[in-house]
Structure formats: structure tokens, C-alpha cells
Batch of 3 targets.
Target 1
Amino acid sequence: MCRHLTATACSSHGTTLLLLRQPAFRFDAVFQGPLARPSTMDPHMQTRFSIIFAALLLIAGCGEAPNRKATFPVKGKITVDGQAPGTAIRVECVPVAGLDTKDPTVSGTECDPEGNFEISTYQQGDGVPPGDYVLTFTWQEFNMMQRQYTGKDKLNGRYSDPKSPTAQKVSVKEGTPTDLGVIALTTK
């Protein structure tokens, strides 16, 4: 059965699409349920249809988003009361000028247990579009059942409001990676 199977692969942005095709495959021969109907399509027509369908999937799945903005790396390290946090702290980039309503993007990340982070917009660690931002930080427990962060912010909400006087400002320049160094947060 597998000797006539052909495979086509397309890889883009860390995702691989694999299409398997068997010439003149008849779905009704496998599915014998109450809705099964014999195929009236010519086997050669089925092959042509499969090729056209596979080409459409490749075209749709392998391109970049048409309005994707250029991004530049932003990294840093978080300490809490002079120590590594030990668990993830959520970092969000809030544009000072407000959300771009034409081509909105959301940039953020979580630090590792040592406090290191690289901000992402489209894919892990790619950075953020150029501009001025305020960073917000929230430190909550991750609820595995709800698949979200819940509970009280261990930073007492001190860094979660972009308009707060304790807000960390960052300016991302085009063509330049940004290293924020150590960002010292406190629970007190």
C-alpha cells in the first residue's frame, strides 16, 4: 500500500507541512458508514484534484504574513529583591503611542527561572517593531487546569500598569538589538 505513496514537504517559520498522496485513493473503500457513497470521479481526475489542492495548501501555508513588521531583538534579565525569580514572570511590551489599529501586534514573553528573557512578536525571540514602549511585569502562578496565569500578582501590581511611575521604558531602534541589562523588581 505504501509503495505508491508520495510525500511533499514545505517548511516555514519552524512549521513543517507534510502532504501525503496515494494515486486513485478511494475514501469510500475505507469508510463504510451510512454516509459512504461510491466515488464517481475518474481516478486521473482525483489525482489532478489532489495536486491542485496540495499546491493551494503549499501557497497558503508557506508564505509570510503580508503585513508583518520588521522586528529587532530585545533581551534582558529580571531580578526580584536581588534574586532570580525561580519561576516565570510575564513581560509585555505596551506601545507608548497606543496600539497600531491598522496592523496591530502584541509583543511579550516570559522569563526563565534565572530571569533571562527575549521578547517575541511573531516567533520566539524575534524582538519587537521599532518604537517606544513601556514594559509591564506580572508574576502569578500558572494554573495547569485552566491553562492560564491566576491568583495574586506576587509583585503586588506595582509593575502591571503601563502608566505607573515604576514602569520600565524602552526605545527600540531600527537595525539595532536592544539589551536592557538587569531590571531590578521588588515585592516591597
Target 2
Amino acid sequence: MDFASLYDRWFTRIYNYVRCHVWPAAEADDVTGRVFEAALRGAGTYDAAKGPEQAWLFGIARNAVIDWARARGRRAEVSLDDAPEPAAGDPRLEAALERKEEKAQLLAAIAGLDERARDIIALKFNSGMNNREIAAMTGLGESNVGIIIYRAVKKMQKDIEGIRKL
């Protein structure tokens, strides 16, 4: 296994997955680094017959996120401070503030999901995996993954609508 090509191929998707679970961004950077460090150390243990490289690497990422949360003795929390502040005097200030508010609403809705749904949503939308890939990684059936995604998206829509009514 060529580690440099593995890193190039998977870094963005792994980082997006980790970032969905880990705040602030600096800690997500650290956790992502630990994922690839563990992958490098364990490269000799990867067996293609047991599953795709993607499932192996996302399994490492999932464990790293769990370790991060355990070390803090809590679930990952949504931090509205992580959303970047728009530049002063920006003519698109109102649009930037609206995007920041929408991002905060989405993060709050994701945080309201149970751990399994949040994980699957992160794999689907942050890491770009399809239902079959998620099923292979999680050990769930492909149709079950689709149902979890459908229900999670519906719950998030309902939660966001509730937030907007406040």
C-alpha cells in the first residue's frame, strides 16, 4: 500500500467526516492527523480480502472520533463560534450573516440526531460515500442505511423549521 497515494485519495473525505464530529477546527485537524498516523502504523495489517480500503480507513477515523469524545467525557458539541465572521464593510454582509445562521441551524439539527444517524449522515454528505459503501463500512444493510438517512433528513428538516419559527 502506497501511503502517499492513500493520503492524497482520502484526506479530504476523512477530514470532512472528522470535522462533522469534532469542534473546533484545530482539534479536527489533530484528530485527522491521528487517523493517518494510525493508518501508517497499521498499513501492514490491512487485508483487502476483509473489505475495501475505504471501510478500513473510515473505521480508523470513527475510532479516533470516539476516542476524542471519550477523552473529553462528552459528546461533540455544536459551537456557533466556529462559523467564520464576515468581514466588516463587506457588501454581502447580510448574505454572509444569513449563511452563518443557516450553518448554525444545520449544525444544531445534526447535533440533535442520535449517534448512529449522525455518523451515517456525516459519511453520506461530508465524505461523499454512497449507501452501499456506508453499508459495507457499518455492517448495516443498504436499504437500512437509506431508511436511516431518510429519517435523519426528515428530522433535521423538522428541527430546522422549528428553529426558524422561534
Target 3
Amino acid sequence: MLALGPVAEDDRAVALTDRDRKILEFERSWWALDAPKEGLINERFELSVTRYYQLLGALLDSPEALEHDPLVVLRLRRRRDRRRRARFELPAQEEDGR
């Protein structure tokens, strides 16, 4: 049976794992630490940098992550979108065939 009524905050956040929350927290504040990001990723999460960014990319597409930390998720989405656009846009000279 479907329960109707207000959804408790704990119920909404169920889909995010502890690691997901830690990744979002790390992205919020890693720049304030005095160490290279890649080293911190390996040290804190015991992941390769490639795997970390794969997980982060999936997390950025998650509605639960957006609800959990909208400022960080929206900032990282904008950065990702700018990089994608820059990667796929050709300079004006190449478009003319020059």
C-alpha cells in the first residue's frame, strides 16, 4: 500500500550512499586543503582518479545529490557543461576550412 503524507528528510536521502555524501563534501571543500586533489582522492576514497570522476559524474546527474547539496551539484554541473562545450566547439578558423 502506498503511504501518503509528508516525506521525512531521512526518507528522501536514502538513495545517497555514505560515499556519495563524502564525495559531495569533499568537492565542497578540497581546495582549502594544502595538497594536490589527486592525492587526496586516492588517500580519502582509495579510488583511482579516473574511477572517482566516473562516480562524481554519475552523482552529478542524480536528483538525490541535487537535493542533498544543490550549490555544489549545480556548480559542478556548470563546470562540466562548459568543458563539454569547449571540447566540441571548433575554433572559427577551422569551421571555414582555413
